[in-house]
Design brief:
The chain is built from 18 helices and 13 strands. The protein is of the alpha/beta class and 430 residues long. Helix 11 packs across helix 16.
Length: 430
């Protein structure tokens, strides 16, 4: 269990445990809406600040939402992926003053189908921290050459939520034709850098035992250097709201709609199969599809346009209301390093259907309906069972919230991070 892993990080340390630290947390992008990186940055910085530490966030665009007491240091890259219009990208590049080699590399790499943000963020971060007074850097998943340079002079704790090799695997698997597969190879070219960097990192944290094993295998990292600290869940915001009635037949899922890893296709097919039996069924998707993309085309093919509602840029509070309105939450991912939507749904005491894969069973224990991956029929049957006997599944969902509160409290998790930070600082002196 993850709770056991947290306990393993409670140790006596020669570093002064009550010492106020100057902590830098870096993240190459930290979108406040959509994806887990912005959530993680916000919650971790807030929790470490509450322990008395001084926390600065260094982020590339899009920038995170933060507590007022936490300082945001912007590392302004070109932000080329805010648009896919060529002339707009040209303008972003032209308008950047005092262009560095990283700017030139970022532009031309993106021009030819790569994702250079991780590498260039590391280069800019190295310059930003050249004469820093921080006690430690916590880097969120960049795993770049710049991090290795920083590590020579500053203790670094690398957060790897999961190896991106998994994203690459499923993106290639679901690609159609050689051209698409080549484009995915080009996009994920940064993986070659990460496979060189990861084994040389001195301290790594990951949120699940499954991710630890995958990082060790896919990135050739010694498991001795990898600590497991789960992510926390804000169970005060994500909580049942008894004053809000559930909408008959409403189901909710959180997914980057056109990312194969999230397995949204299988949920959509289940909705299509249930439409005649439950004509009122409606799927709320927290996320946005690519206009004219795969998901939009599939929805049209299945003729379920009237049963699908997209909602984007929602605050935590607004997402919690959507959970309160819904009867069932679904996480149909093919892989998750942790999976915030899993914990958030359980914290809201909503019956949950989730794939029995990767880290998900570590989070859910026996408080969710676990199903095989890539199996729309199992999703369909689980939805049918819950809608036909809601009280049975609601009782289990209520116990699931207790499980989340007991095991995924950000206050306890921040203390585990604090201990690991002290250990990282001490071992860096050796």
């Amino acid at each position: 269990m993850l709770a056991i892993q947290i306990g393993l990080l409670q140790f006596n340390n020669i570093y002064t445990l009550n010492q106020r630290l100057n902590i830098a947390i870096s993240s190459y992008r930290s979108a406040p809406f959509g994806g887990g990186q912005g959530i993680f940055i916000y919650e971790l910085s807030k929790a470490l600040q509450a322990l008395g530490h001084n926390v600065d966030i260094i982020s590339g665009p899009p920038y995170p939402n933060l507590e007022p007491e936490i300082n945001l240091i912007k590392s302004p890259g070109l932000d080329l992926f805010s648009t896919f219009v060529f002339k707009d990208r040209i303008s972003l590049f032209k308008n950047k003053k005092n262009k560095s080699p990283d700017d030139w590399y970022e532009f031309f790499s993106a021009l030819f189908g790569g994702f250079p943000e991780i590498k260039t963020f590391g280069g800019r971060l190295k310059e930003l921290l050249r004469n820093s007074s921080y006690d430690v850097l916590i880097d969120n998943q960049s795993i770049s050459f710049g991090i290795l340079e920083i590590q020579k002079n500053l203790p670094v704790l690398e957060i790897i939520h999961h190896p991106i090799t998994k994203d690459y695997k499923y993106d290639v698997e679901f690609s159609k034709g050689i051209i698409q597969k080549i484009s995915k190879w080009r996009w994920y070219s940064f993986l070659r850098m990460q496979k060189k960097v990861a084994p040389k990192l001195k301290a790594i944290s990951t949120p699940s035992l499954n991710s630890k094993n995958d990082i060790a295998k896919d990135l050739n990292v010694s498991s001795r250097k990898i600590s497991v600290i789960p992510n926390g869940i804000d169970f005060e915001v994500f909580a049942p709201k008894n004053n809000i009635p559930r909408v008959l037949g409403q189901i909710i899922t959180t997914a980057s709609a056109d990312v194969p890893l999230k397995g949204l296709d299988f949920t959509l097919k289940a909705i299509a199969s249930l439409k005649k039996e439950h004509p009122y069924i409606r799927l709320i998707i927290i996320g946005a599809p690519r206009i004219g993309g795969h998901t939009e085309r599939l929805i049209q093919k299945l003729k379920i346009e009237a049963n699908i509602v997209y909602k984007t840029n929602l605050t935590k509070e607004e997402i919690a209301i959507e959970y309160a309105n819904s009867n069932i939450a679904i996480v149909s991912s093919l892989y998750e390093g942790f999976g915030f939507p899993v914990g958030e749904a359980m914290a809201c005491s909503i019956p949950l259907i989730a794939t029995n894969v990767a880290s998900i069973p570590e989070i859910t224990s026996n408080f969710a309906e676990l199903i095989p991956v890539c199996d729309s029929k199992s999703i369909e049957n689980s939805i049918r069972n819950i809608l036909s006997n809601p009280s049975k599944y609601q009782s289990r969902a209520n116990e699931g919230r207790k499980h989340i509160i007991a095991n995924f409290d950000w206050k306890k998790i921040a203390q585990s991070y604090e201990n690991l930070i002290y250990k990282t600082i001490e071992t860096s002196k050796c």
